[in-house]
Amino acid sequence: MTARVGVVTFPGTLDDRDTQRAVRIAGLDPVPLWHRDKDLKQVDAVVLPGGFSYGDYLRAGAISRFSPVMESVIEQARGGMPVLGICNGFQVLTETHLLPGAMLRNNHLHFICREQRLRVENAATAWTSDYEAGQEISIPLKNIDGRYVADERTLDKLEAEGRVVFRYLDGNPNGSLRDIAGITNAAGNVVGLMPHPEHAVEPLIGTGRTDGLGFFTSILKKLVNA
Q1: What residue numbers bound the domain in which 88 lies?
Q2: For the segment 137-162, what is each residue's pLDDT rounded down to a tens digit?
Q3: Keyword Cell wall biogenesis/degradation on this protein (predicted)?
Q4: With contact defined as beta carbons under 8 Å apart, do 6 and 31 qualify?
């Protein structure tokens, strides 16, 4: 039996079906998880997909952080379960403090939707092992609250520990400090990023490239070899 990857749906989630499809294309078994259910259904990893959970009221991800499912996700993540947060999922991860920092409104105050080039800075996480450090990829970006911020001490620590996973190229799209597009926790099992790898897993949709598929093949290899 293949590894099982849970995909959480909150009220307002947009990209859960796309994420399930990406998981399936990579050879994994996608398992839908509902926000009100604490039971993770014995999954091996979890993805928090993009969207506007709870309408982004208060702050993006602020209400989702208190959903019953997140109690289990937080507990399992601290125990080593791989967790990926994409866009709104990244925002939720910062609200839970599984990842440091916060996400603010884009510096230009507009929603942005475009193909975005990234540089892989860390290929040693559970979700990036199929990439190479320094590799450049292109995947879709779509957000209005995508500006990553943290205090200088936190930023310096992320840099020193190699926990910046992705950095924006060809111009910073949202004002994120130090061009940070994605980060990881110290253990490397929790990763969050604003761009959408699930929209770049087959040539007929998204960017017309498969640059995002590596996230899902990386976790497949991680789980199969565990």
Answers
A1: 4-225
A2: 999 999 999 999 999 999 999 999 99
A3: no
A4: yes
